[in-house]
Give the backbone structure.
Amino acid sequence: MSLSFGTDLSGKVAVVTGAGGVLCGMFAKTIAEAGAKVAVLDLNEEAAGKVADEIVAAGGIAKAYKTNVLERASLEETHAKVLAELGPCDILINGAGGNNARANTTKEYFEIGDIEADTVSFFDLDQSGVEFVFNLNFIGTLLPTQIFAKDMVERKGCTILNVSSMNAFTPLTKIPAYSGAKAAISNFTQWLAVHFSKVGIRVNAMAPGFFVTKQNEKLLFNEDGTPTERTAKILAATPMERFGEAEELNGTLLYLLNNEASGFVTGVVIPVDGGFSAYSGV
Ligand code: NAD
């Protein structure tokens, strides 16, 4: 099946952060298949290069740029290169993000004795770990937007797509920082949509449910490949009783980027979750 459902993004320049990763690598390939020139940004140069190479091998136009979404200088350097090599940015996908084990509690519920126990309770959470996660997800969306959305002002049909998560609607146990940071992304998506509404830049987000990627595979599967207890809980809370396939985000991705399809849509966060966010558990 074609990844891009026949959507035409030719003539557009798309900048995708975190594009060396599983979900955003696929976003980059899908947008390239739809005809856009794609700037593949990632901290991991090799991963970004691989995605760009795959796009070029499939007949698309892409270039990889080693970029840290947390460093303004790195973003500015990449912006100058993208402008010279591909052109001004029409589409920005803020995909770089994720959690960090230093910002997690060991257990779901706090119990008497946990302060003394050899576990990470709420009281032991590492401030630097929490800051890392807030920065990666929130500042890592805000800074690229400051740098690349300037290209969009006074040009028509430009869009920004942020990546939120299920934990933004209702926090998941054990991951307070990641949940709070993604809630901030959903909130920022609405704020930015309103702020940019008079200059025609649409800003939306998708909120993926559970997809197996590099960042969560250790939480979801044991070393021998068997599912963890958390996987059992996730699947029990997902009415469709399975993980999502990355390709299943494509329809929402293309809908939100396509001005003909979603020209009056701005400030929304669309769940793609097999029913997770609709299900009360009863
Ligand atoms: P991933 O780990 O495969 O990809 C994340 C990419 O971001 C990696 O290639 C990494 O090198 C890059 N990155 C990390 N820090 C960076 C930095 N400072 N600057 C530039 N790049 C950096 O993870 P993924 O699951 O594909 O995640 C993509 C997005 O989707 C993230 O925002 C994540 O929070 C979100 N998300 C994932 C799921 C899921 O189930 N996998 C669910 C909801 C939301």
